[in-house]
Write a sequence for this structure.
């Protein structure tokens, strides 16, 4: 029997490189191996030209100026640079930053670090659908607020914040707006200037580019934003981020952006159909719940809780065939279930039962057929083993049982 | 993380899945864990009144692969044992048998708790005061 291909539905973790991206990168490991900062010879000029071209490709995707793109090692570094850099640069103006409880750890842990440096951080809860309450945001802005930071789209649920409305509030109060757009760039239009976002973090490896390279968009006019460098050295990237540029990575990042600009809408239309079919077929099963706002959501993502089934156990029934991820505690070292889902008001039990499906450019119709069959079989199998499913079927109110929490 | 063959076998083909009549006098039921914690185990034993030997054991578990494998293994080990012998089943023996990684040790603890809870339930139903 032919060995079945492992189906990859975990594209929010990382995407495979597009072969066109890899082909573009290869010469920069070999004959074009120069350091972009070498100003005295052909190798350096070639590398610098390549970086400039990639910067242009990325700027075109975002409809911004080339000089507004600062290359980094990835979105985590970009998020660190944005938050720490703004905090230091605008210290005289204030020390208050507003963010959300459902942000990625690269934001939350950076905020915790800044708290130790004297920052005051407001962590807004989100509504049940995963969206920020705009009135609550506006009410938390004070004279000392220097920055608002919200992710464009959430990694676990795919929920897209109402970016324009948030930007309007920030503009009204003269507060800078940073967005961790890691999950959105290259998949949906993310135009910071048009939207009113002043700083934006993103990375190549979530948009079919290589790992280890990311960027921070920093607005150069209206407003002109500056961030204090967090890595000292040769003063690369207009002094905001020193370090020899990862030329092959940047070249690949540029190519990925160019492809995304052309192909984004076509990919999104195809994937949203596949996602909708997957979601519809799996929610035919009893007692399922789709997590997060379905109207304002990334086209390739769905997050579903299968009640009375534990996520990691469920994944083990099909992980020889399908790769997904779960909000179950058992997938993390902390033994706590997803703080994103809990932050949306989901009970721990439902968070433990959740599976995230994230499709990508290389997902096929057949992949989805197989995923539907295998996941549904897995859910049924796990429910046959589940004492709480049996109790639910017997009409027992699970909330009335005195559980021996451990 | 990679799981042991034994663990995967118990997960894929769990032994003794099911339910015994919890109202029967010779059946002891242990229900441990909580849905909020991501693990619930229900383990039941049926005791032969004449011999005092566990003649059958069944389980159902809501939990990860390690929790399901731990409970499956526990039911296998219980069958044919006296209550005193059953009381000596130690969670570390389960850890060893299934090669549970450190983050999954709590699954074996839960299985031991379930065994003890089932025995206690049987004993209290039958007016036996636990010896220890």
């Amino acid at each position: 029997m032919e060995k079945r291909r492992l189906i990859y539905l975990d594209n929010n973790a990382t995407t495979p490189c597009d072969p066109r991206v890899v082909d573009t990168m290869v010469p920069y490991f070999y004959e074009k191996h120069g350091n972009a900062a070498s100003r005295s010879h052909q190798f350096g000029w070639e590398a610098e030209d390549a970086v400039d071209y990639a910067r242009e490709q990325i700027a075109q995707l975002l409809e911004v100026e080339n000089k507004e793109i600062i290359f980094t090692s990835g979105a985590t570094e970009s998020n660190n640079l944005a938050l720490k850099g703004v905090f230091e640069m605008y210290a005289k103006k204030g020390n208050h930053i507003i963010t959300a409880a459902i942000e990625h750890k690269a934001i939350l842990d950076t905020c915790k670090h800044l708290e130790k440096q004297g920052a005051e951080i407001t962590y807004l809860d989100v509504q049940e659908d995963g969206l920020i309450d705009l009135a609550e945001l506006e009410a938390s802005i004070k004279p000392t607020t220097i920055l608002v930071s919200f992710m464009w789209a959430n990694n676990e649920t795919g929920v897209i914040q109402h970016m324009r409305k948030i930007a309007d509030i920030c503009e009204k109060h003269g507060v800078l707006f940073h967005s961790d757009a890691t999950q959105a760039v290259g998949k949906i239009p993310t135009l910071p200037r048009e939207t009113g976002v002043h700083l934006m973090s993103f990375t190549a490896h979530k948009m079919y580019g290589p790992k280890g390279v990311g960027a921070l968009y920093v607005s150069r006019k209206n407003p002109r934003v500056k961030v204090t460098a967090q890595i000292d050295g040769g003063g690369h990237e207009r002094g905001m981020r020193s370090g020899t540029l990862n030329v092959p990575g940047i070249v690949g990042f540029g190519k990925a952006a160019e492809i995304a600009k052309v192909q984004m809408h076509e990919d999104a239309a195809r994937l949203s159909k596949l996602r909708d079919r997957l979601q519809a077929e799996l929610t035919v099963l009893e007692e399922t719940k789709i997590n997060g706002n379905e109207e304002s959501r990334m086209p390739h993502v769905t997050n579903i809780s299968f009640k009375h089934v534990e996520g990691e156990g469920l994944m083990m029934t099909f992980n020889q065939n399908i790769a997904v991820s779960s909000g179950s505690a058992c997938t993390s070292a902390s033994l706590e279930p997803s703080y994103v889902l809990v932050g949306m008001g989901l009970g721990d039990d439902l968070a433990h039962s959740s599976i995230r499906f994230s499709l990508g450019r290389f997902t096929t119709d057949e992949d989805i057929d197989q995923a539907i069959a295998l996941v549904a079989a897995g859910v049924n199998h796990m429910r046959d083993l589940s004492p709480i499913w049996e109790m639910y079927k017997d009409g027992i109110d699970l909330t009335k049982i005195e559980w021996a929490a451990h | 993380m990679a799981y042991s063959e034994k663990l995967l076998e118990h997960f894929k083909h769990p032994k003794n899945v099911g339910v015994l009549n919890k109202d029967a006098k010779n059946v002891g039921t242990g229900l441990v864990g909580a849905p909020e914690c991501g693990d619930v185990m229900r383990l039941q034993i049926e005791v032969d009144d004449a011999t005092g030997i566990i003649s059958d054991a069944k389980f159902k578990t809501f939990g990860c692969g390690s929790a399901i494998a731990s409970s499956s293994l526990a039911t296998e080990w219980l069958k044919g044992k006296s209550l005193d012998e059953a009381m000596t089943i130690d969670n570390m023996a389960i850890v060893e048998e299934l090669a549970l990684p450190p983050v999954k040790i709590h699954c074996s603890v839960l299985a031991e708790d379930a065994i003890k809870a089932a025995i206690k339930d049987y004993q209290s139903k039958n007016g036996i005061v636990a010896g220890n």
